[in-house]
Design brief:
With about 110 residues, the protein is an all-beta fold. It is about 0% helix and about 50% strand. The chain starts with a strand and ends with a strand.
Length: about 110
């Protein structure tokens, strides 16, 4: 199993980023996928998850209405569209498929 995140970076408050996670080594369309994040000094937390066919999504309360998780099973890729970013969103963002993690991508929200 390999999960490779991309799309992180430095953005100003109120800005947007789109994270991607390219998956390989398993039948992507059979598994739910999630995004987690971990800020310095804090525990890793679930941000969003999506069912295997994309019909069901769930979000942490802190990102509801701002973040959108989506997947393209033809491309073996899961996305996280992040809008209206806040400094509190600063963290390393990880793609997760039970029980595998990506290497993470840094998102920094700062002026």
């Amino acid at each position: 199993v390999q999960l490779v995140e991309s799309g992180g970076g430095l953005v100003q408050p109120g800005g947007s980023l789109r994270l991607s996670c390219a998956a390989s080594g398993f039948t992507f369309s059979r598994f739910p996928m999630s995004w987690f994040r971990q800020a310095p000094g804090k525990e890793r937390e679930l941000v969003a998850l999506i069912s295997s066919n994309g019909d069901t999504t769930k979000y942490a309360d802190s990102v509801k209405g701002r973040f959108t998780i989506a997947r393209d099973n033809a491309k073996n890729t899961v996305y996280l569209q992040m809008n209206s970013l806040k400094p509190d969103d600063t963290a390393v963002y990880y793609c997760y498929k039970p029980v595998s993690w990506g290497q993470g991508t840094q998102v920094t929200v700062s002026s």
